C-alpha cells in the first residue's frame, strides 16, 4: 500500500532485504544472549526476557540500569510501526472509497483505533489467554482461505480472458 507513494522505488527491494536481514541478525543475537545469560527456562518463562536481560547489564558499576533505554527504544519502535500501519490503513480505505484526500479519515480512524484497542485486548492476561484462540480462526480465514480464494478467482479470470482472446482471433 505504501509502495506507490515512495520517491525512490528502485532502492525499495534492496532496503527491505537489508532491513529484514539486519532485523533477523538482531533477533538472533538477542535470543542467543537471553539464553546464554538467563538460561533457557527463564527466557521461556518471561514474556519480556530482553527487559530482564537489560537489567543484568553492569559494566564496572558505571553503566547500569539500561532498561530505561530499552523501554524508550521499545516505545519509539512501537510508535513508528503503529504510524506506518495506520497510514497504510488510511490510504487503503481512502482508495477503496475513491476519496481524493486521505487526511479526512485520520481522525475517525484514530478514534476507532483507540476504542478497538481497549475492547480487543483490555489487559495482558486477556491478550495471552483469550486472543490466541480467536487468532487461530482469524489467521485461518484471512491468512489461508481468503488468499486461496483470491488466487482461484484470478486463475478463473485469466482463463476466461484467454478464451475471449481466442474467440476474437
Distance between the termini: 37 Å
Fraction of residues in H or I helices: over 70%
Largest sheet: 2 strands, antiparallel
Query: Count of helical segments?
Result: 7
Report the sheet-strand fraction: under 5%
From the alpha carbons, calculate the radius of gyration and give it in angstroms: 23 Å
Low-confidence stretches: none
Mean pLDDT: 87
Number of domains: 2
Order of helices and strands: HHHEEHHHH
Give structural notes:
- The protein has 169 residues and is mostly helical.
- The protein has 2 domains: 3-123, no CATH class; 124-169.
- 76% of the residues lie in helices and 2% in strands.
- It contains 7 helices and 2 strands, in the order H-H-H-E-E-H-H-H-H.
- Strands 1-2 form a two-stranded antiparallel sheet.
- Strand 1 (58-59) and strand 2 form a beta hairpin.
- Helix 1 (12-38) packs across helix 3.
- The relative contact order is 0.04.
- The mean pLDDT is 87.
Q: Brief description of this entry?
A:
The chain has 7 helices and 2 strands. The chain has helices at 12-38, 40-45, 49-55, 67-96, 106-120, 124-129, 131-168, and strands at 58-59, 63-64. α1 (12-38) packs across α3 (49-55).
